[in-house]
Write a structure and sequence with these properties.
By secondary structure, the chain is an alpha+beta fold. The chain has five helices and five strands. The chain binds a DNA duplex (13 and 13 nucleotides) through α3 and α4.
DNA sequence: GATGTCGACGTGG
DNA sequence: CCACGTCGACATC
C-alpha cells in the first residue's frame, strides 16, 4: 500500500514551569523533544490534522515524565520512545544513558567503555548531541572528565538546571 | 604545574 | 575533507 503524503508524526506543546517544550510523535512513540525557546514559532500545532487518541495518551505520559525530571525525581512511566532514526552506535549510547538514574552521572569515557568502545570517547559526545529525546534520555547526566560540565547542544544552562534539580554538584562549584 | 599538540572515533555537511 | 557536547598521553617550558 502507498504511504500518504502527510508526514507520519504529530507535534504537541508540552507546558512546564520552565516553558513550553515541543514533543514530536511518530506512529511508534515519542521521537523528538525540543527545549523551550528552540521552538521559535515553527510548526504551529494548531495547523495539524487530528491527533489520534493514542498519541494524546502518550503525551500525558511524556508531560508527567518531563515534569518529574524537572523536579529532580524519577519518572513513574515513560511513553514508548521511537529512537529508530539513530544509528546502531547511537542507540547503544542512548541505551546506556537510559540506565543512569537521577542524581547519578557518568563521564563520556565511562559511556564509551560501557558500550565496549573505550577509545570512541569523542564519538560518544557526538551521539549524546544527536539524542532526539533529551531530558527523558538523560544525556545531561554525562559529564566531561574531572567532573567538569562538558557541552550541551541545547545550551549549558539547561544542563546545569537539570543537574541542579537532581542535586548534582559539579566540582568547580566548590572552588 | 600550566599549557600545547596529537591521535583515536562516528556522523553529517 | 572538516568539525564536533572528549580523553589521555606526552612534550616543553
Amino acid at each position: 500500500m502507498n504511504v500518504t503524503a502527510d508526514p507520519e508524526w504529530w507535534a504537541l506543546i508540552l507546558p512546564t514551569a520552565e516553558g513550553e517544550f515541543l514533543a514530536h510523535y511518530s506512529e511508534q512513540g515519542l521521537c523528538e523533544l525540543d527545549f523551550p525557546s528552540e521552538i521559535g514559532g515553527r510548526n504551529s500545532p494548531a495547523a495539524q490534522r487530528e491527533v489520534p487518541a493514542q498519541v494524546l495518551r502518550w503525551h500525558e505520559f511524556t508531560t508527567a515524565a518531563v515534569t518529574s525530571v524537572l523536579k529532580g525525581s524519577s519518572p513513574a512511566a515513560l511513553p514508548p520512545l521511537d529512537l529508530s532514526a539513530g544509528t546502531e552506535f547511537q542507540r547503544r549510547v542512548w541505551q546506556v544513558l537510559r540506565g543512569i538514574g537521577p542524581g547519578r552521572t557518568l563521564t563520556y569515557g565511562q559511556v564509551a567503555e560501557a558500550i565496549g568502545r573505550p577509545t570512541a570517547v569523542r564519538a560518544v559526545g557526538g551521539a549524546c548531541g544527536a539524542n532526539p529525546v533529551p531530558v527523558l534520555v538523560p544525556c545531561h547526566r554525562v559529564l566531561a572528565a574531572n567532573s567538569r560540565l562538558g557541552g550541551f547542544s541545547s545550551g549549558q544552562k539547561w544542563k546545569r538546571l537539570l543537574l541542579a534539580r537532581e542535586k548534582v554538584y559539579l566540582l568547580c562549584w566548590f572552588i
